[in-house]
C-alpha cells in the first residue's frame, strides 16, 4: 500500500489517494474539490483509479465527487445513508462557503457499519461514526494499521458538532467505540491537519481523555 495526500479546497482538506502496490489500482478518498489537480496527480503517479470513497458529505470532502466520478467512470462508495441530506445540500454548501458549484451525486453503494471496502487487494473495515455528521464513516486498514477518520478525530481535537444534525455526545461515543478500541500504534489520517496515532490521542487529546 502507498498513500498520497493531496490537500484540496481553501479548507486544505486532506484528499487521499490509496494505492494498492500489487495491482496499481487506486481509490480516491474525499475528493472535496480541485479535481483537475487530483487528476494530474493520478496521472503523474501512473495509477489506475478504481473507486471513490467518501467519509461524509461536507463540501470540502465531497464537492468534487461527481466531476471525478464522471471523468473516470468511477463507482462511489459511502457515506452512510444518513448523510443524504448533506449530499442534497452540496449546491447550497458551495454558495455558503463561496466554493465553485458542487454537484449532487448518487453513491453507487451506501456504506453501513461493519461493511468492508476494497482497493485492489487492500481491504478496509467500515465503521459508522456519527456525531460530526449523522452518516460519517471511517475506513480502517488493519494490515497497515492505518485509519481514514475524516472529521471525526484530529491530532489534539475532535470534529465540530455545531452543524445541522451534529451531536457532541454521539461523536464522543463513536470515537470511544470505534477508534479508542484500536491499539496505540494505529495511525490515522484526518480530514485536516497532521497525521497522528491512537496512543498519542489517548494520552493527550483533551476531548477524549
Ligand atoms: Zn466535515
Give an overview of the whole structure.
This protein is of the alpha+beta class. The chain has a single domain, classed as Ribonuclease Z/Hydroxyacylglutathione hydrolase-like (Metallo-beta-lactamase, Chain A), CATH 3.60.15. The protein contains 7 helices and 13 strands. It has a 6-stranded mixed beta sheet with strand order 6-7-8-9-12-13. The longest helix is centred in the N-terminal third of the chain and has 11 residues, at 35-45. The radius of gyration is 16 Å and the shape is globular. The N and C termini lie far apart (32 Å). The mean pLDDT is 97. Bound molecules: zinc ion. Residues 56, 58, 61, 132, 151 line the site of zinc ion (ZN).
Features:
209 residues; alpha+beta; Metallo-beta-lactamase, Chain A; six-stranded mixed β-sheet; 13 strands; 28% strand; globular; binds zinc ion
Rounded average pLDDT: 97
CATH class: Alpha Beta
The CATH architecture would be 4-Layer Sandwich
Morphology: globular
Measured by DSSP, the beta-strand proportion falls in 25-35%
Strand segment count: 13
Counting helices, strands and paired strands, the structural category is alpha+beta
**How many domains is the backbone divided into?**
1
Could you give the distance between the termini?
A: 32 Å
Uncertain regions spanning at least 5 consecutive residues? none
* N-to-C series of helices and strands: EEEHEHHEHHEEEEEEHEEH
Give the C-alpha Rg. 16 Å
Amino acid at each position: 500500500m502507498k498513500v498520497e495526500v493531496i490537500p484540496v479546497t481553501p479548507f486544505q482538506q486532506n484528499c487521499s489517494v490509496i494505492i494498492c502496490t500489487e495491482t496499481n489500482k487506486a481509490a480516491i478518498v474525499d475528493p472535496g474539490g480541485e479535481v483537475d489537480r487530483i487528476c494530474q496527480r493520478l496521472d503523474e503517479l501512473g495509477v489506475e483509479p478504481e473507486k471513490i470513497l467518501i467519509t461524509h458529505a461536507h463540501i470540502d470532502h465531497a464537492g468534487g465527487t461527481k466531476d471525478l466520478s464522471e471523468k473516470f467512470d468511477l463507482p462511489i462508495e459511502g457515506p452512510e445513508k444518513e448523510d443524504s441530506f448533506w449530499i442534497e445540500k452540496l449546491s447550497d454548501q458551495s454558495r455558503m462557503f463561496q466554493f465553485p458549484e458542487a454537484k449532487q451525486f448518487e453513491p453507487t453503494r451506501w456504506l453501513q457499519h461493519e461493511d468492508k471496502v476494497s482497493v485492489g487487494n487492500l481491504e478496509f473495515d467500515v465503521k459508522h461514526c456519527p456525531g460530526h455528521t449523522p452518516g460519517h464513516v471511517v475506513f480502517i486498514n488493519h494490515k497497515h494499521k492505518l485509519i481514514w477518520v475524516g472529521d471525526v478525530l484530529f491530532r489534539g481535537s475532535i470534529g465540530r458538532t455545531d452543524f445541522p444534525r451534529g451531536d457532541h455526545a454521539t461523536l464522543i461515543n463513536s470515537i470511544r467505540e470505534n477508534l479508542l478500541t484500536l491499539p496505540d500504534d494505529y495511525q490515522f489520517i484526518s480530514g485536516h491537519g497532521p497525521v497522528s496515532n491512537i496512543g498519542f490521542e489517548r494520552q493527550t487529546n483533551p476531548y477524549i481523555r
